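cache lookup: miss for this entity combination. No prior model stored, computing from scratch. Input as submitted by user K.M.:
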Amino acid sequence: MKRKFDWDSVVRSKIFWAVVAEVVILLVSEILKPDFFRIEYKPETGMLYGVLIDILNRSAEITIIAMGMTLVIALGGTDLSVGALVAVSGAMALKFLRWDVTQYPTPGDYTIMPFYLVILAPLAVCTLMGAFNGLLIAKLGMQPIIATLILMVAGRGIAQITTNGKQFTTMYTPFQVIGQGHLLALPMPIIITAVVVLCVALFTRKTSFGMFVESVGVNPSASRVSGLQSDKIILIAFMITGFLSGISGLIYSSRISSCDSNNAGINNEMNAILAVVIGGTSMSGGKFSLAGTVIGSLIIQTIVTLVYFFGVVSEAIMAFEAMIIAVVIVLQSEPVRKAFASRRRRGAAATGGAVRA
Amino acid sequence: MRDVVLDMKGISIQFPGVKALDNVDFSLKRGEVHALLGENGAGKSTLIKCLTGVHHMDSGTITLDGEEIKPSSPQAAIGMGISTVFQEVNLCPNLTVAENIFIGRQPMKHRQINWKAINQRSAELMEHMGTSIDVTKPLSYYSIAIQQMVSIARAVDIQAKVLILDEPTSSLDEHEVRRLFKVVRDLKARGLGIIFITHFLDQVFEISDQITVLRNGKLVGKYDAAQITKLELVTYMIGKDMNQIFNLKRAEQKPGAPVKLEAEHIGIPGKVEDISLAVKQGELMGFAGLLGSGRTETAEMLFGVTRPLHGTIKMDGKALSLKTPLNAINQKMAFCPEDRKRDGVIGDLSVRENICLAVQAKRGFLKPMPPREQQELADKYIRLLSIATPDAEKKVGELSGGNQQKVIVARWMATNPDVLILDEPTRGIDVGAKAEIQRLMLEMCENGMAVIFISSELDEIIRCSNRIIVMRDGAKAAELDGENCRQSDILAIIANESSEVSA
């Protein structure tokens, strides 16, 4: 399946421009702030420190969710409920750790329920919620944006009910490891993200799931006639997204050692969609790129970091972020990519002619 | 001498990897129907796309009415008076017929859209084309044939100097073709230059004045339609002798072959009623009939695309419950659908992925075919069906229509079925590819496959079929022996309301 390297199609691809954008943003940061690229190893904690590590660490939640979002968008859908599922996951985990704050008033290094339940129950519930989304869409034929809107709204409510509207805090060490620990000198969220990305990549590309997703996303009718069970594929994609939102929720709540049903995962759905789109997957479905999504997520986090790093006044942060993202999206737009590709081609043709002459 | 309305000179265009057009000349006179012929990928569509501003040529000039033009977009081309009716219906199925005809140029009254005028004018236009339909109904309500008429009505109503008909008849039946040709003659008399692209050679001779033949992106020649024979023309088109193609023989029916697929009284009231049929192993059963006579609906019931409301389908004498196409695939059936764009190609996926899709669907996604096996399968069918593609990784959507069709046929042949249903597999593809597909079909019959072959072209049905079922108005009108059947017999049954159903 080897194809000869085709520079033209590389220049035309969206992921190329995403990488270019990320590199440019990083270079600009390095110029403005020379320590930007520095990574330090501190033996006393056994961890690597640096802005780049920080970007990777902080992008974990969005990258993980965006893996699932990539599949959903490739199917021609979208999932608005992911942010709410992050809140549900955190609330459930904390509920299982503390159970009832009136009974166990002080947070400490303990858990009421067995630790495996603290992890598995939120993941199971989020997967089920994903399945709920998937069933509404695959079996009842609802529009994904409407179907997932239900849990986007209801999810936070469920999270509130789980903890009786209270914010729980925990000091339970094994739980804190998820968001604050480290492994191989790297923050734990980076390791978890790497594992998730690897698993999703293997699942989609080493089985035919990825091809089926793309096929249904491009042409549902032809896919059905060709024997694909699109409802099954849609269901699985939404379950994966739910499950991954659950993981993301565990990381977030572990980071802050508490649950916050109102703010956990806020805007995650929009950032995840943005990461996918910057990564080159079309909102109308079809071919997807997991690598592109990872880059997209990194771009978003790099911009956020950059903004804080240079002390942009807090009122202007959102506008500043939006501006950079707008530039990235324009760079990736069809006309711009085409213009670059055809300029290259014209140049190549001219030199080719000269050689022949 | 009538004056030249359109003159294209020295047109060349380069696509990555291929020279799509190489120094092609084409000229069109006022009041002339000029056929543009060539095999799939010969460059017909590319030439048209140059003219309509979809592609930009690398060199050459286009002169319209004595003025040099450079159409930059389809919109610009339309503005210059070049209208096109494309091969695939390119309208909005969710809008009404009238809206489709006037979209983008709605007549206004008091700064509001004048709906009355739109509907009235549309009704007139459709009437003029011999089709009285309710123009306020959504386009998707009507058959592809009517949709095609609508797109012609739209193209004609735009004040055009040049009208391009790109395979306008490929979804029309005899009747509708007559109607269309009447319209074309009308337009011709009004002084329009008409470029006519088709694969139906009979139609070329019937309506064209001039014929230009392209092959592999190069101009072969320009001929006077009155002074060239069909055989010569085909020889020019494919560049080799055609006799082998017309010598195809139907598969020998082996006596005592068991019945493979059987349908008993299947139907969906209101669409198709009470169809019974039995296809034997190694038999090719032809399905003739007008568009909308229930041919496709019957095929879809047999393959589980739609569920019959009554009746049973049996394979090897055992009743089947076909809920989805996957069930049918698991029973070793295959179905190459009529509407290639909607039910066939997955445009963004590669040729390889498209070919492997049904095989993979059968295996389930957890048992992927190893990449090497996929590659071998794709290469095998690219070779076998001579699919014109640089390699197996090219997107199917970028291939020409005929090659897309071959990819779909390949997808189903790759599943190695016992029963193969082909719904208009040869529509819109060139003579060479058509013969290729017919040859394969007959070969598969020889090897014991049961084939159901649906086609609007009676001569190919008669040439290939062992038995022929004639459909009319959603019911089986007759079942004939392919051996002793003449075209006139079938036509009589299609036309004659009172003919008896023979055994």
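stored under new cache key. The beta strands of chain A are 39-42, 47-50, 182-183, 186-187.
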